[in-house]
Amino acid sequence: MPSGGTATARETEIETETSAMTEQPSPSLEGNGLSNVRGAVYLPYRVFNHYQMWDRYAPAEIERDLTFASNLGLNSLRAFASYTVWRENPAAFRDRFDHFLGAAADRGIAVLPMLFESIGVDPTPSNVARDIPIRSPGGAVLRNRGRWGETAEFVRWFAARYGDHEGLLALEVMNEPGELDHRVAFVREMLRVARETHPTVPLTVGCKTLDLNRQYADAVDALQFHHNLPPTADQMRQKLGEASDLSAEVGKPVWLTEWQRTRAGPPDKMLPNYDSLADVVRDSDIDGEFFWQLMLNPAYNLKVRSMGRINGVFTEDGGVYSLEGARALAGFDEWDAPQIRPEWTETAGSE
């Protein structure tokens, strides 16, 4: 409901249903805080990149979404920071991130912020307003080692300010840097800067595959891999076993930080189907997992978005796209919320 508006009968009904969700205690992080991680990737509803999230930051909506996450039994969220917004208005970004971490901690949720993003187009004034992925930093900075002092300033500020915050899980230096030499060098330099600034803050990198972790294994505290759309549940089970083996080999926890569903199968291969993998992921030996994504949105990747893929659990009014999927994520059949299919989802689905 807009600020200052009057609730309609349906809005009042949704609010009542949402507040009556069957709640379970969120799982507590274990050991050094890097195990028993159960989370989701977070972008607000109908927000498409890190710039939009922090430029349009709405505290009441953030608190609402964090409550949804807590009600689902999550103890972590993986969310983009925004170097671009920080460069434009450091005080505003500081105040907004302070609120985000504080509100998360109040709900027993630890945040895994992604400091930089490799995917998307350059953060030009015209691009940041578009509903597309935005890379951070831009290519001109990333390819010029002489300008890495600019990004190092952000890493130092972030690690110093938030390294001891109770709402911080770890610092993810970059999402999916891949194996291009200049990106690997950039990530290793930012890891060095973060470690130098705050020797004990946990560090990690959003690697797309398990093998890419070997580029950073000596410099991070937790390994990551993404496996969004395995062909079958058995294939996911095999990959999770390989992740456990790698964790044992290097002696560090491993997290699956992006997963969605099996690639094929009912009800429609382009729509959310978290129940196709939730039990497999939960029953594995890995230390943490984050599904993509908490809030219902068109796909982040433009190619699959054009094919009709949508991801997510919650609508902005507290409904869920699939009650069966939400119950699978929560881990028990009694979990409840209204099932709502927003009008914009009606054209999504099959290629």
Q: What would your notes on this structure say?
A:
- The protein has 351 residues and is α/β, with parallel strands linked by helices.
- It has a single domain (24-347), classed as TIM Barrel (Alpha-Beta Barrel).
- Helix content is 37%, strand content 13%.
- It contains 13 helices and ten strands.
- It has helices spanning 9-19, 50-55, 59-71, 83-88, 90-106, 125-128, 139-142, 148-162, 181-197, 233-250, 278-282, 302-306, 323-330, and strands spanning 37-42, 76-80, 110-117, 171-175, 203-206, 223-226, 254-258, 288-292, 297-298, 310-311.
- The protein has an eight-stranded parallel sheet with strand order 5-4-3-2-1-8-7-6. It has a two-stranded antiparallel sheet with strand order 9-10.
- Helix 10 links the parallel strand 6 (223-226) and strand 7.
- Helix 3 (59-71) packs parallel to helix 5 (90-106) and helix 8 (148-162) runs parallel beside helix 9.
- It is globular.
- Residues 1-14 and 16-20 have low confidence and may be disordered.
Keywords:
351 residues; alpha/beta; TIM Barrel; 8-stranded parallel β-sheet; 10 strands; globular; disordered N terminus
Full CATH superfamily name: Glycosidases
- Could you give the order of the helices and strands? HEHHEHHEHHHEHEEHEHEEHEH
Note the main sheet. Answer: 8 strands, parallel
The CATH class, by name, is Alpha Beta
Radius of gyration: 19 Å
Q: Tell me the overall shape.
A: globular
For the secondary structure, the number of strands is 10
